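// run 5 | inverse folding | seed 20
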């Protein structure tokens, strides 16, 4: 077999990787097409022994999560319906596809693709926010994303503002630390800077409060590592004292300033019990479900089994739910526990923590500019911390578009750690 023929599978893999990275900021259909192609070409390369499988801690964490899902499905009382949910797990192999694909491949061209596409969509999202015009959607769909206060919740090219915000949060985290790393070329640092700023703008105009909180955590995470813990604690402490001091001296004045703008009112609503009543009642229902089935859970696709709990809470608190059980309880941790039981929630935490711990360990007490991989790992860890924070208030991990980005960056962090170890 000629060298050209041997390279054909890798060229096909490169094609699907390009489709995947181009699609991440705007198209779940493009993501799924690319992931399917990557599965096929990777299976072929493993079968012909041109790729070598490596067991990673993430594999065992996912195994625990899936075992919890299987166990809860078997005892759900509606086995067929519960196991029908398992088709949503098909992307779980993506981190390993990314790891195998980039073991010897340059990742920068693919990151540049994501920067360019997400930046263009970021510009469009700002246009959406200020004009309320979406040239890709009907007027009926546009009305669905105008809040009661008359402000457009930017959705980019997705169908929901939290989907767009969740993706932009992760990309902002990935890009931001690299702006300061002189190991990258000047052109690449400019690209990372532009991508960071426009994805941050997208986070702002998506109007998702959970996304704002997650992005704040992402920024604090990055600043803490760039400045070092002592300096960052000092800076954050001084900032907190200034904010508290201003509000304590002229609370009404600053409250009035916030309430004078839509985004200001959105910020103040974060701590408003009245404006978060529906979410609080959903959490109350979820806790009641977990109390009844703490070990096994209710099983996946459990909307009908959740309904009595919703009705009980609605009657007790005289509350009319805006969201039905089928859309989830707007907390990914409660959602996974009530669906997949104790093993499921432990597995879910493990999926994040095995990489968070390993990633932080690799950049701890080392200059972020020490290598390209260090700043990329920092960005991924920061974005993951922000996404986990946002997950307290939404079901972001179950959103296919957001999940694809999460699994891609999980695969990338395994690549970067592997390269650092080999060096």
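// decoded
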């Amino acid at each position: 077999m000629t060298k050209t023929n041997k390279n054909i599978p890798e060229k096909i893999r490169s094609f699907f990787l390009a489709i995947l990275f181009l699609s991440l900021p705007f198209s779940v259909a493009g993501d799924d097409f690319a992931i399917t192609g990557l599965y096929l070409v990777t299976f072929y390369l493993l079968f012909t022994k041109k790729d070598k499988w490596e067991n990673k801690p993430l594999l065992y964490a996912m195994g625990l999560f899936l075992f919890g899902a299987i166990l809860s499905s078997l005892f759900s009382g509606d086995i067929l319906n519960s196991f029908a949910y398992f088709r949503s797990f098909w992307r779980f192999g993506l981190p390993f596809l990314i790891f195998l694909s980039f073991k010897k491949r340059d990742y920068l061209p693919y990151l540049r693709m994501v920067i360019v596409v997400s930046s263009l969509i970021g510009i469009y999202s700002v246009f959406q926010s200020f004009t309320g015009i979406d040239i890709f959607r009907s007027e009926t769909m546009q009305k669905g994303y105008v809040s009661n206060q008359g402000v457009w919740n930017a959705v980019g090219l997705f169908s929901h503002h939290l989907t767009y915000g969740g993706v932009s949060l992760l990309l902002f985290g990935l890009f931001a630390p690299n702006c300061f790393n002189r190991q990258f070329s000047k052109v690449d640092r400019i690209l990372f800077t532009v991508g960071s700023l426009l994805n941050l703008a997208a986070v702002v105009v998506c109007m998702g409060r959970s996304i704002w909180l997650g992005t704040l955590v992402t920024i604090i995470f990055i600043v803490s590592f760039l400045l070092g813990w002592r300096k960052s604690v000092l800076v954050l402490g001084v900032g907190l004292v200034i904010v508290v001091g201003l509000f304590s001296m002229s609370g009404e004045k600053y409250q009035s300033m916030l309430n004078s703008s839509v985004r200001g009112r959105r910020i103040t609503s974060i701590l408003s019990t009245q404006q978060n009543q529906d979410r609080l009642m959903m959490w109350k229902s979820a806790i009641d479900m977990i109390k009844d089935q703490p070990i096994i859970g209710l099983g996946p696709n459990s909307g009908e089994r959740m309904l009595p709990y919703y009705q009980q809470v609605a009657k007790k608190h005289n509350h009319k739910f805006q969201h039905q059980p089928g859309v989830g309880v707007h907390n990914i941790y409660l959602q996974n526990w009530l669906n997949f039981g104790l093993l499921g929630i432990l597995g879910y935490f493990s999926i994040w923590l095995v990489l968070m711990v390993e990633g932080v360990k690799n950049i701890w007490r080392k200059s972020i500019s020490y290598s390209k991989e260090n700043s990329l790992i920092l960005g991924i860890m920061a974005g993951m911390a922000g996404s986990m924070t946002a997950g307290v208030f939404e079901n972001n991990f179950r959103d296919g578009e957001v999940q694809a980005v999460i699994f891609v960056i999980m695969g990338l962090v395994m690549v970067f750690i592997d390269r650092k170890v080999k060096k």
